[in-house]
Amino acid sequence: MTTKPAILIKQTRSSLTEQEYHGFIILCDKDKKIKKIGQDCDYPFFHRSCAKPLQAAILKDFKTDEYYKLSPEEIAVCCASHTGEKIHIDILKNLLKKGGLKESDLLCPAIEPLNKEEQIKFFNNYSPLHNNCSGKHTLMLLICRQNGWDIKNYLDKDHPLQIAIYKKIQELCETGSELPFTLDGCGAPNFATSLSELAKGFYNIFCTDNYVKIKNAFLSHPYLIGGKHRPDTEIMRLNHSICAKAGAGGLICIADTSSKQVLVIKLMQADMQARSIAAVDAMIKLGWIDNINSIDYALLYNKTVTTEEQKPVGEFLSVFEAEDFKED
What we know:
globular
C-alpha cells in the first residue's frame, strides 16, 4: 500500500529551498464529504494522542460522567496531553480519589512533564501523574472501577475496557474493518485508521450533539487539554469555536464546531514547527481564523529561519491553497 504525500511546507535559506515537508491535509465538511491535499490512498496511520477524545467517548456509553459527577475540567484532563502543571495534577489527584484509586494504580510510566519549568522544579523526581497521558489512564481506571473490572491489567488488548474502546473507535470512525494495533508511548493500546476515517471520528465527536460534554470540555478549557506553549491549546485560543488535539508522529486534528468542518494534518517528517505552520495556514486559508495575535503562539508559528545570533536568513513557506483540496 503506497502513499503520495504532497509538499506542504518549504524551508528556505537565502532564497534557496533547503528543506521540504511532505504530508496530507484532510478536510471533512458538514456533509461528511472528504477532500484531500495529498493522496493517502486510505493508508492507515496510528492515531497516537489524537485518539484521546475518541477513547474518552466511552464515558457516555457507561454513563461514567454521571457516575462520578465529572466536571468539564475533569473531562478535559481525561482527554489531554497535558504539560504536568499543578492545575493538571490537582485535578488528576481528585479524580483518583473519586474512584478510590492510588497513584500507583496508573500503569503509565513516570516521565518528565512537558512543561520545562515543571521539569526544573521536580529535579527528575517525577511520578506517573506527570506523564502527559495520565489523564487518559485515570479515566480508564475510573471506568474499570465503575464496572468491577480488574485494574491491574487494564492496558491488555483483550481487557473489557480496551475492547470497548476499540469498538467505539470503529463506530466513531465509521469503519468496519479490523484496525491495526500498536502500543502508544504510554503503553496503552493504539489503533490506526485512514486519515479520512479519523476526520470522521472527530466530526462525530465535535460537530454533532452526541458528545456534547467532551466538546464543551475542549471549548471551555483549552489550557487543560495541553498547557503552556502546546499547539492544541494555542490553536483553540485563536478561535473559541475550535477544538484541537495534537498527536505524535506529525499528526493534529482540528474541528471547527461553528462551520462543522474537520481538518486532519499529517506531516511525514513529524516536525512540530512545520506541523504548526501548516495547521495555522490551513485554518487561515479556509477562513477559520483571520489573525494570529497570540503572544504564546508566536513560539509555535515562527516562520523565520535565523542564524544562532537570530539574524533572519530564510523562512517557512506554505505551498498549498484552499483550491488544492481534491474530492475523495
